[in-house]
């Protein structure tokens, strides 16, 4: 009886009769409430019917019954997405990946969702530095992260860039004051070129820029320090190279000029 109801539900789902499928799965659940597959299937039907709260409840019950069933996490994520609880949806995908680290399907689904999450975050105002750091940590494209830092740097005035750069030197020095910071001047704090980011279609996100521009100078410095903390080692290497070339290169040139004789 239960198997017959499930099969009929699957057939109804396949032909797009989601309300019929939902009813058949409900009847089957009444007879076999411990079947995680039935809860998962009804969640899928309710998702199609835009019944996100009910779908979320079903997906969570599925996970309780069978924590290793990755479709439960996937359907919970979709329900949370429908409720615009995007960070929780992402966490659900992370849990799925922890449960099944070798499952390529769930990893692909999480990657697709991360792209959606970036777009979703880009369409909403940033409320605080904590909020932005959490957004930044979700960016999985290195160019998204590096371009954001470059656009923030360029949006800072030369005095703010010098403060950011000096803080950067402190971080590299392990928290101690770097030797002779007076070598560096505001004039050296040039904008970073953004052609590479433009070619990669990484335009500045206006709501993120609005947030950054609303910060006081000290807050900008602290935000840069926090973003540095969550960058990967590969990103850190690229950032150091950029600063060495565009800023430290200026300092070396200045030192060379000081050592030259006048003709």
Automatic annotation (TrEMBL):
SUPFAM superfamilies: TPR-like (SSF48452). PANTHER family: STRESS-INDUCED-PHOSPHOPROTEIN 1, TPR REPEAT CONTAINING PROTEIN. GO terms for molecular function: Hsp90 protein binding. InterPro entries: TPR-like_helical_dom_sf, TPR_rpt. This is Uncharacterized protein. Keywords: Repeat, TPR repeat. It comes from the Eukaryota. Pfam families: TPR_8.
């Amino acid at each position: 009886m239960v198997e017959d109801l499930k099969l009929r539900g699957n057939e109804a789902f396949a032909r797009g009769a989601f309300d019929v499928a939902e009813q058949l799965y409900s009847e089957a659940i009444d007879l076999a409430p411990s079947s995680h597959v039935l809860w998962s299937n009804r969640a899928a039907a309710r998702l199609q019917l835009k019944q996100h709260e009910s779908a979320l409840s079903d997906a969570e019950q599925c996970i309780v019954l069978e924590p290793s069933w990755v479709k439960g996490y996937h359907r919970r994520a979709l329900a949370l997405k429908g409720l615009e609880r995007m960070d929780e949806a992402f966490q659900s995908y992370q849990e799925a990946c922890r449960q099944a680290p070798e499952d390529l399907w769930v990893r692909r689904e999480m990657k697709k969702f991360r792209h959606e999450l970036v777009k979703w975050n880009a369409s909403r105002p940033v409320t605080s530095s904590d909020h932005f750091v959490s957004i930044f940590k979700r960016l999985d494209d290195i160019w998204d992260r590096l371009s954001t830092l470059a656009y923030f740097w360029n949006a800072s005035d030369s005095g703010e860039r010098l403060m950011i750069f000096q803080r950067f030197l402190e971080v590299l020095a392990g928290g101690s004051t770097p030797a002779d910071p007076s070598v560096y001047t505001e004039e050296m704090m040039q904008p970073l070129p953004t052609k590479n980011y433009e070619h990669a279609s990484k335009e500045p996100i206006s709501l993120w820029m609005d947030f950054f521009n609303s910060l006081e100078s000290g807050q900008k410095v602290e935000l840069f320090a926090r973003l540095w903390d969550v960058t990967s080692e590969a990103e850190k290497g690229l950032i150091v190279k950029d600063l060495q070339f565009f800023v430290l290169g200026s300092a070396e040139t200045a030192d060379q000029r000081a050592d030259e004789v006048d003709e």
